[in-house]
Amino acid sequence: QIEVGVVARKAQTNSAENLHVVYATQQAGNSGWQKLPLEPEFSLVSFKYDVPFVQGGYTIPAIIVLHSDASGAGRAAEVLGVYVKVLKAPG
To answer: What are the helix and strand counts (H, E) for the chain?
Structure first.
């Protein structure tokens, strides 16, 4: 199990209300789009994901994708950083 965290806030202009984030293994599935609420000030938003076990381990690096506006209206978010933390190792 991992935790994906983002330090972000609403943009100063044309701000998004939420930040959509996905953790993708590129081999054995993904977390699905997670809708994380944004505040006017920088704050930490996060979600947990149970990464599927792959016999022999992963050979392709995982990716994290951030999207601030699924509607295509140009809404924005400001991001300071992203992290992935292992919460529970397999076994």
So the answer is: 0, 6
Is residue 91 scored above 70 in pLDDT? no
Please give the Cα distance from 3 to 11 (Å, whole number).
Answer: 24
The rounded distance, in Å, linking the Cα atoms of 72 and 74 is 6
47: DSSP letter = E
Model pTM greater than 0.85? yes
At residue 36's C-alpha, the angle toward residues 31 and 38, to 5°, is 160
- Over the stretch 58-90, which tens digit does the pLDDT of each residue have? 999 999 999 999 888 999 999 999 999 999 877
Say how far apart CA 73 and CA 75 lie, in whole Å: 6
Determine the distance from the C-alpha atom of residue 20 to the mean position of all C-alpha atoms in its chain, rounded to a whole number: 7
